[in-house]
């Protein structure tokens, strides 16, 4: 099965949920007003990100041999999640996909919308900061942009290969179409070297890794089982 077929099946499953859609609030190139950065006009419209997670869970869970583990409230070192799923492929060498949901509500920093976070292996190995980025009116990219971000993130893991490299105070991700690195001053200074190491890991190599770092490496879920 190809990634395009998965995208189409997820879109069909999502459409059946009847969730709202909306266009970006401004045309490309127009800067948001200052007050939009501190305003969240509709907390609950972002429930679409949870809906997309449910659609991916339905579609991936229907693949032969895939196991869906439902997670109750999840607490990690830095976050609390209302619920989640851990989706495990039967293909050897793959990484489980973890989808974690945060519900809209009040926080110490103000009102927060619904969020979806992606992780691999377990909830502690998140690969993103959550979708949407923040939920304020200034950062609103429209519903289609949110759904595309989720689809791209899920497929980077499912279509594979995918590498997560974790060090003290930093992490890096790599997949064939891209990669990223973030962290504090302890992060390696040479991004290109880190990406080459990740690519080598994906190819089955044993590169020298940055000190005190660990790697999670996953092959494609779409490969035929060996």
Mean pLDDT: 92
Number of helices: 4
Number of strands: 12
Low-pLDDT regions: none
Structural category: alpha+beta
Task: Measure the end-to-end span.
Answer: 16 Å
Could you tell me the radius of gyration in angstroms? Answer: 18 Å
Largest sheet: 4 strands, antiparallel
**Can you tell me the overall shape?**
globular
Oligomeric organization of the protein chains: single chain
What is the N-to-C succession of helices and strands?
A: HHEEEEEEEEHEEEHE
Please give the share of residues in helix.
10-25%
Strand content: 15-25%
Strand order across the largest sheet: 1-4-5-8
Explain what the structure shows.
With 226 residues, this protein is of the alpha+beta class. It has 4 helices and 12 strands. It has helices at residues 3-15, 48-61, 143-158, 191-202, and strands spanning 67-71, 74-75, 80-81, 83-88, 97-102, 105-107, 110-112, 115-120, 162-167, 170-175, 178-183, 214-218. The strands form 4 sheets. Strands 1-4-5-8 form a 4-stranded antiparallel beta sheet, covered by helices on one side. The protein has a 4-stranded antiparallel beta sheet with strand order 11-10-9-12. The longest helix has 16 residues, at 143-158. The radius of gyration is 18 Å and the shape is globular.
């Amino acid at each position: 099965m190809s990634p395009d077929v998965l995208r189409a099946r997820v879109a069909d499953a999502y459409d059946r949920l009847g969730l709202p859609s909306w266009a970006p609030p401004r045309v490309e190139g127009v800067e948001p007003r200052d007050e939009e950065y501190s305003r969240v006009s509709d907390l609950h419209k972002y429930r679409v990100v949870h809906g997309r997670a449910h659609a991916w869970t339905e579609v991936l869970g229907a693949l032969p041999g895939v196991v869906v583990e439902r997670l109750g409230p999840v607490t990690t070192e830095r976050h609390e999640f209302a619920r989640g799923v851990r989706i495990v492929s039967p293909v050897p060498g793959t990484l489980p996909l973890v989808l974690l949901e945060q519900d809209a509500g009040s926080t110490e920093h103000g009102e927060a919308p619904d969020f979806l976070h992606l992780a691999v292996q377990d909830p502690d190995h998140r690969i993103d900061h959550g979708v949407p980025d923040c939920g304020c009116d200034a950062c609103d990219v429209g519903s289609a942009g949110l759904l595309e971000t989720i689809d791209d993130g899920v497929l980077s893991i499912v279509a594979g290969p995918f590498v997560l490299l974790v060090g003290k105070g930093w992490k890096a991700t790599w997949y064939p179409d891209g990669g990223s690195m973030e962290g504090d001053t302890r992060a390696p200074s040479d991004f290109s070297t880190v990406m080459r190491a990740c690519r080598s890991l994906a190819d089955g190599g044993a590169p020298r890794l940055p000190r005190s770092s660990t790697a999670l490496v996953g092959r494609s879920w779409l490969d035929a089982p060996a």
